[in-house]
Amino acid sequence: MPAVSAATEDSSPSSVVAQIRAQLPALTERGRRVGRAILDDPLAIIHMTVSDVAERTDTSVATVVRFCQDVGFRGFADLKIRLAAETIPPERGLHEDVTPGDSSTAVLGKVLNSTAKAVTGAADTVSPEAFTQAVTLVTQASHLLCVGVGTSAPLAQDASYRFRTAGIPSEAPGDTHVQHVAARLLGPGSACLCFSHTGQTRETLNSVRAALAAGAATIAITSFFNSPLTELADIALVAGSNETDFRVEAITSRIAHIAVLDALYVAVYLANTERAQTAQQLTAETLTDHRI
User: Fold this and answer.
1) Per-residue pLDDT tens for 60-93?
2) Contact, 218 vs 234, CB < 8 A?
3) Contact of 167 with 272, CB cutoff 8 Å
């Protein structure tokens, strides 16, 4: 298909809007609706999830993804990255507040300040009702599966270890196929805790669907209110930062997720202190073998 190969071969950011405009007449009515929304405000699209775009254009997630592929991109994430490169200065791809003339100490101050805002802002974005429900589900879980890929994988590993030391049987397989299988082998009374910045990662969504099919409860820690993940999960704990929502890897948002995880761990610990203290004592005794 010539139009697709042209977009694939020409990776220059300046070709993105022109490519969409050129192919608009050949698209379906729903595809043209998505295309016009992008052309009308490409900067706004960068700050949206695929679910946001589907909602704005009164289409579906599948339609938005298909549009991206029809005009030559691998998917919505690929389109956003190229639009960001076209419309956002390169230094803002590192951090929203940083400018090229900033000194090293100014960069330090700005990054730490925005990170602190993201963490404190989580108090406003995490629903107290959803958090309370998440605490109950994890506390009562007969087995807890923690999943995440890419930069969310270390958070899943950390979560599994923390809850295991609080007396809750848990696991966090590193391989995505094993995550998927482990999720399908869960059952009623168990829970799946997943981490995803965008809420659009295919492997994480597959695991959540498998956990739901198995009858397990699903809890998501993510950065956006409206995403395929929040639509799937039983409970969504949303904590992110606006200044990093267009970045490929938003470190600030990961820190906000860690803060929410820490709060969840403490609340679960306090919900059953006898169990947690027993596990903590055994953990402490075991760790003495690794100290000099």
Assistant:
1) 999 999 999 998 888 888 888 888 777 766 555 4
2) yes
3) yes
Instruction: State whether CATH 3.30.70.1110 applies to domain 2-88.
Output: no
- Domain over 122-290 is classified CATH 3.10.450.50: no
Q: How far apart are CA 280 and CA 13, in angstroms?
A: 53
Contact (Cβ atoms closer than 8 angstroms) between residue 255 and residue 227: no
- Are the beta carbons of 197 and 170 closer than 8 angstroms? no
Under 8 Å between Cβ of 229 and 199: yes
**C-alpha closest to that of 233 among 263, 253, 251, 212:** 212
In this structure, of 117-121, 157-161, 204-208, the range with the lowest mean pLDDT score is: 117-121
Cα(160)–Cα(193) distance, integer angstroms: 9
Residue 16: which residues within 8 A CB-CB, separation 6 or more?
42, 79, 82, 83, 86
